[in-house]
């Protein structure tokens, strides 16, 4: 399995812990966790360009959608695939997130045991879609 | 009576100009005729009166005649007695007057009784006058004695007496006639007076009738005015006191009237909006054509009479959300529309508040639950180290209940979406077989907790429906979890999928105690819960949601007792067909794939692209399909049984007729694609599990223009051969033939062939003479095949694309050569 660097951003400390634990089940994953959008941008600016960014949508200050735009506005992270993690997952919401450029949506509550696999599947699917 | 019928009835009551004109003409005509008749009758009575008057004159004349005769006789007697000539002075005038009167009397004879006397009077008077003349003449001659002697004889007296007698009769007769005339006149006059009286009475009656009619009509008109006023006032008051904005639009879609609420809601006064198009405030009927056509009013029926969630533009520029109800008003001046607008801003606001609340609830409840479930899941999986068995059991209980809480939240959110009509159901092709497989795999964990075996049976082929796979998975999972709750530990649950002609049925059969009689009617209701054997309970919403989801798919959901105990829950949805009937307007895709999963994916993609499709599981099936009909695109699995995908594709290209549709090769794995360059395939897919990639490939293939039939010019002086070649080649190409060079050159003026077939030996030269003229629109040489009985030199052969010798080359050779030449031309292009 290829190694994967993941940037995970969530304001909820408990869920951060769970996601960290869940992703740590996959030893090939390098995880950086940020507690806010601003911190995530700092992490990227400091040189950590992840293979994929997993973002919570509803965060105080900068929400996930704004963070996606800001992230993609950075030249180094312009092509970083983004997966949203949200409890708000009506079909219309999911479609809207994808329209904004997300490659996938993980619905809370998620299965922590399958989380890493789920992220990998979304990345794989994304890579196989030819860019228009 | 419908509004339309009432309008027709009203139009029948409209005053008729024709009838009115007839009456208006008839009355004066009758009056004029009556007057004319009266005038005639009056003339007649006047005539009778005149007749009576003439009768009197005539009697006077008769008395005068007698008196003149006496005057003449008196003059004669005086003269004879005295000899004094002065006595004779009145004699001559009397005599002339008598003669004149008698002449008149004779001339006026008309056969009446009085007139019949005139000849007698004339004769007697003549005799009398003659005797008088004779006596006077005798006296003048000096014979007074003779004269007197004549007188004394008394003949004169007798004549006078006779005359008196006759005239007396005449007078009597005249008098009688006069009396008769007077009596007739009197009678006639009386009759005339009666008629005149009757006429006057009739006229008076007519006038009275007219006046009565006028009065009644005026009274009626007033009553109608009062009624109309009352109705108008009533409706105006209703209109103005209603809370909804109401506008009445004339047939051209402009505002005719509006109520007070409309003024408030739209921010326009009635005067500002009068005769302006309704589009000023709301675009009810976009598009072209008449207003009625645009709004969908056909034959008095509106296509849509309720338009929810519309937006109006107020006069001040603000937008207001409204629901619009439209009614049709069939009035004599045309079909008017009544548009009522209900302000739903408040409802929208409340909906937004509720949505926000729901969103908050879902977020705020799910976020801690995510932590709980996640933590428990990680603990259970040993992420934090080994867990003792008892603690593991406790963790499992906590995790299960947390998941139940999540289900409850999800179900409540779904119920809310159902209630607010916001339950989104996708309408994409989906393979139910994979749905139930997922449901089975997903429920295995729950089943394992009760040592229940899930027995899943389904067709190997894809079972395609149009709908929302996620939602149908939800339904199936719900049925399975209900069954697991109801089933005794260690039992078997059957999950089945069957399909018949037009529908797919998913069923879940448990071997539980069955549904209690009292619960059967309520089972699909909200918050209705059974009493499962194991004491676990669901949310009571699952079946209500399932029913809604299935209903929204146009399907049905039901339950029945399972033979041998337990319950069978099932739902059915319409199939789009494992082989979707190919409709003429849609592109047809031939899917050649034996692997069920790959075939399912390919079918789903073909259906999603709006194509009809047919599935062939082997090269033989595929060939049979190709023989039946033409396809727009072929999706060919590399590992197609019998021949293999590549060999089949190659065979199809070289077949008779050849397949020129784009071919997409679907390879199960990357590897040898050597066949690709040799084959005209438009794409080579190495990951059949990637729908997006497949969609792109299919769309590309579909967008490739269907190749048109090539045009082939055949020049040969042998007409029979021309016909034979044309008959053989026509199915694949359009043939134009010429028997000599001039006509071939003339043909080239009109058509630009894709290939030319030339005979060398012609009556007027050689087919090679045409080569300089075989130039297409782009200035390129048109591929040429020599088809001749003559052998040709290598120099000649270099000038053309192929050479076939008639004696050696059979017809299939010629066809294959044409195909090869066309293909190499296309490749060059």
Oligomer: heterodimer
Order of helices and strands of chain A: EHEHEHEHEH
Q: What portion of the residues of chain A fall into strands of 2 or more residues? A: 15-25%
* Dominant shape of chain A: globular
Explain what you see.
Chain A is an alpha/beta fold and 132 residues long. Chain A is built from 5 helices and 5 strands; from the N terminus they run E-H-E-H-E-H-E-H-E-H. In chain A, helix 2 packs parallel to helix 3 (64-73). The model of chain A has no long low-confidence stretch (mean pLDDT 88). Helices cover 41% and strands 21% of the residues of chain A. Chain A has a 5-stranded parallel sheet, sandwiched between helices. Chain B is an alpha/beta fold. In chain B, the strands form 7 sheets. Chain B has a 5-stranded antiparallel sheet with strand order 2-1-7-6-5. A 5-stranded mixed sheet of chain B has the order 9-11-12-14-13. In chain B, strand 6 and strand 7 (334-343) form a beta hairpin. In chain B, helix 2 (17-82) packs parallel to helix 4 and helix 4 runs antiparallel to helix 5 (144-153). The interface between A and B is medium-sized, with 26 and 27 residues.
Question: Helices and strands in order, then pairings?
Answer:
The complex is a heterodimer of chains A (132) and B (829).
Chain A: E1 4-9, H1 13-24, E2 29-34, H2 37-45, E3 52-56, H3 64-73, E4 82-86, H4 91-99, E5 102-107, H5 115-128
Parallel strand pairs in A: 1-2, 1-3, 3-4, 4-5
Chain B: H1 3-12, H2 17-82, H3 91-107, H4 118-140, H5 144-153, H6 155-241, E1 245-249, E2 255-258, H7 260-266, H8 270-273, H9 291-295, E3 297-298, E4 301-302, E5 306-313, E6 319-331, E7 334-343, H10 345-380, H11 389-419, E8 428-431, H12 432-448, E9 453-457, E10 464-467, H13 469-486, E11 492-499, E12 503-509, H14 542-552, E13 556-561, E14 567-574, E15 588-592, H15 596-608, E16 612-616, H16 619-628, E17 633-637, H17 645-654, E18 663-666, H18 674-678, E19 681-685, H19 691-703, E20 711-715, H20 719-729, E21 734-738, H21 741-750, E22 755-758, E23 761-762, E24 765-766, E25 784-788, H22 794-799, E26 802-805, H23 811-828
Parallel strand pairs in B: 9-11, 15-16, 15-17, 17-18, 18-19, 20-21, 20-22, 22-25, 25-26
Antiparallel strand pairs in B: 1-2, 1-7, 3-4, 5-6, 6-7, 8-10, 11-12, 12-14, 13-14, 23-24
Helix pairs in contact in B: 2-3, 2-4, 2-6, 3-4, 4-5, 4-6, 10-11, 11-14, 12-13, 13-14, 15-19
